[in-house]
Amino acid sequence: MVADCDWSDLPQELVISIANRIVLMEDFTAFGAVCKSWRSAATKEIFTSPLTHQVPFIMHPVKDAAGMLEFYSFKKDKFLMINLPEGEDEVCGSCLGWLITKRGDSKFNLLHPLNHSRIKFPSFRDSKENLSPLIIMSNFDFQKRFVLSSSPSWTCDYTIMVQSNSRLLAFCKPTEHKYWTGIVLEEEARDIICYKGRFYAVSGDGSVWVCDTENPKQAKAKVVVPAVPGEVLPSALRRVKLVESAGDLLVVFTNGFRDDLPSPKFRVFKVPLRDGKWHLDLEVKDLGNRTLFLGRDSPSFSIVSSDCSGFKPNCIYFSFALYGVFSVFHMEDGRAEEHFWSHYWRKPSYWIQPSF
What residues does the F-box domain cover (predicted)? Predict the structure, then answer.
């Protein structure tokens, strides 16, 4: 039997030596969660593996266990449990390696799961002292979407956008703005994304808006791409996701987020931002050496498959809405296969893009 020991008593040079030998980001996350002294060694300078080639993983908040998070490692094909010191925070989103958390009714923050940096959101009232969209969102059961223009780990010049209900967006620059600015869309948005520094939203019919966020006093959204005509896409595929891949903005039409579908289908198109004209030549039938990750509760993204072992190229990874089934859709033959089941049914799941 191994006697109990205090891991925080290990010499710091030994802790740093251990950190230098870690390869996977999920192991680095677990390493930093051991204790305060180990967390101090879990720094960007210590972590020596190439961050651009880190493998994405899935995170689930653990039911009835404050501060406990479960990670699924595709590399190891197993689940890892991690305890965050910020146990009172409820995880309600993720983007670019950061978690969006809520404490109480309306205190939202950005939280980094590795170094535990915390960034508070601005006031929850607008410049006219009206309740901001975040307050409305925290009091009702709307689907929440959060998107960052860039990672706060890299720059202070970033914007965060929130979709608090089907037509209402809000944005702010936490380092500059004291309030949130709202944008009301003419139609229901199904997804939002930041692409080349600008925020875009898409509706179920393929209409795409671009949001002007440079001047909060003149914030607005305009349609830059109209609805997809019926001859290009049948009306059955009206669940949509926006994702950037190889420099292109793609829209993925699917019926694949329902639990009662025996054969989910996906069709991928390049968004015609240049001229706004949909046609069949825009369809992407082969992703090549790339893999798409469609987030139900977090933004979608893509990777170079050969850089991240464990993922299949020319495929789309996605999850069903309620029952925790994570599946893989093969673009080559239209075949879908289950990859793993999460035992947290009806709970949010978040793709985590490892980064500092």
Answer: 7-47
State the angle between helix axes of 25-32 and 12-19 in degrees (0 to 180), rounded to the nearest 10. Answer: 160
Determine the distance from the C-alpha atom of residue 38 to the mean position of all C-alpha atoms in its chain, rounded to a whole number.
27
Q: Which helix (H) or strand (E) holds 100?
A: strand 98-103
Cα–Cα distance, 99 to 166 (Å, whole number): 22
Q: What's residue 310's pLDDT?
A: 76
CA atoms within 13 Å, Cβ hemisphere of 119: 21
Q: Provide DSSP, 278-331.
A: --GGGEE----SEEEE--SSS--EEEEGGGSTTS-TTEEEEE-SSS-EEEEEET
Q: What is the pTM of this model?
A: 0.82
What the block records as the tokens of 303 is 């990777």
Torsion of CA 56, 156, 44, 77, to 10 degrees: -10
Q: Does residue 106 register a pLDDT over 80? A: no
Cα 105 from Cα 149, distance rounded (Å)? 25
How many residues does the structure list for the chain?
356
| Through-space distance between the first and last CA atoms of the chain, rounded to whole angstroms | 38
